[in-house]
Amino acid sequence: MEQIVKILDTWSGTANQLRMRDRSVKVLQYGCQMLLGFYGKKFSNEMQQALALFRRTASTSRKAFWLLKSVNHITNAIHMAQKIMFEFSWVLFFDLMEQVFLALYYVMENIVFFIRVKMISWSEDDVDFGVNWTWFIGDFFCVAAALLRFCESVYNCQNMNFATNQESLQKYQKLYFDLVGLMIVSSLSDNVALPTLKLMVPCA
């Protein structure tokens, strides 16, 4: 019974977080898309229309979660810019550019939301280019920063006192390869690169 209560308390705590709600709806959105993609021909027309409507509604609701989310990325960018003013770093510069383009991306997604609720008379095709390219460029800077961090970490590891111990060095190199690989795969579907990179254990 105590375990059940603990699970419920944990779920209640996470369910109140906006990011958790977004991810929950995302599971429904892409679940419907998967069913349509793999089994669509086996469903009736009514079921296909229902799944398509469900996917579309879930997508729109997620965009509602993202209203003003660009403010978070603008805040991050301002803090990073202040750090760069004191000490320039290419890694921090790439992180800054990622935040800038993510802010632009969510602005574009906000526009898509207003288009869908008929508050703007544009077509989604009018903003698709901006949505796709701001997301792509943001991920590009994310991957570039990750690769640069990896190179710096390997260099630092090779210059540590234990560098003569090849087994230890190989373990550290494998750790960073695995983490960078996880970051790259994650960034292709969703931008969780920054939290992932914070898991990287420094060599010192």
Q: Please give the number of β-strands.
A: 0
Mean pLDDT: 80
Secondary structure category: mainly alpha
Q: Provide the succession of SSEs.
A: HHHHHHHH
Distance between termini?
Answer: 44 Å
- The number of helices is 8
Largest sheet, described in full? none
Morphology call: globular
Helix content: over 70%
Q: How much strand content do the residues show?
A: under 5%
Q: What's the gyration radius in Å?
A: 21 Å
Low-pLDDT windows of residues: 189-204
Give structural notes.
Helices cover 80% and strands 0% of the residues. By secondary structure, the chain is an all-alpha fold. The chain has a domain at 1-65. The model is unreliable at 189-204 (pLDDT under 50).
Keywords:
204 residues, mainly alpha, 8 helices, 0% strand, globular, disordered C terminus
Write a compact overview of the structure shown.
With 204 residues, the protein is mainly α. The protein has a domain at 1-65. Helices cover 80% and strands 0% of the residues.
Helix and strand arrangement:
Blueprint: H1 2-15, H2 18-39, H3 45-65, H4 70-86, H5 90-116, H6 125-158, H7 166-189, H8 193-197
